Input
Amino acid sequence: MTDTGFIGTGTIGAPMALRLLEAGHRLRVHDARREVTRTLEARGAVHAPTVREVAQACDVVCLSLPGPAQIEDVVLGAEGVLAHARPAAVIVDLSTNSLALNRRIAYAAASRGVHYLDAPVSGGRAGAAAGRLSVMVGGDRSAFEAVRGLLECFAKHVFYMGAPGLGTLTKLVNNQIFLSASVLVQEGFVFGAKAGIDPDALEVDSPTAPDVDVDDLAKALGL
Output
C-alpha cells in the first residue's frame, strides 16, 4: 500500500489532510512553508521535502494550492508532479483553478499516462474539518471512482460532472448563483429597513453557504 500525497496544507488543505489521516490513510505531505505540516506529522503523516518526492512515492497526489500560478508550477514545473509521477497516477486538484489551465494540465497528464481531476471544493475550513465539503469533479470517470473514497473522507457531497474542466465550471456556476442571491438578500433588507421594518426582525437562519470568494470567479475565468 503506497501513501497518498497531499501538497498544500494551509487553511483548507490541512483539515482535509487531517480527515484522511483520521480515516486511516497513510499520508505524505508537502508545503512550501515547512511549519504548516508539523501538526499533520504529529498525527502520523510523513513529511516530504520536495514535490518530486511526493510524486515518486504516491499513486494519488492531492493538491490544495492558492491559485493557478502555484498549481502550474507544482504540476507542470521541471520538478513538478507530472514530470515525476508514477504511471497511471491520479492527480486530484482540490484548488480553485482557471478553466484554461485545468484543460491544459489534463491534456499534458493524459499524454504521460497520468489522470488529472479538477475537483474544487466548497464549504470552507469548517466544512473541511467537519467532513461536510462539497466536491465537484471533472476528468476521467474511472479515475474519479478510484479516488471517490478519499474524497468522501472530507466531503458530504461528491459530484462527478464529466469531462476535464467541468468540476471547475460547476464551482464557477455555484459561486455566481450564490453571489447573485446574496445581492438580492441585501437589497431585500435595505428595502425592508427603508419601509420601516426592523432589520433584526427580518433576519432568518440561512442554509450553509459555500466558501464563495470573488477572487474564485476570476481564477476560474483565467482573469
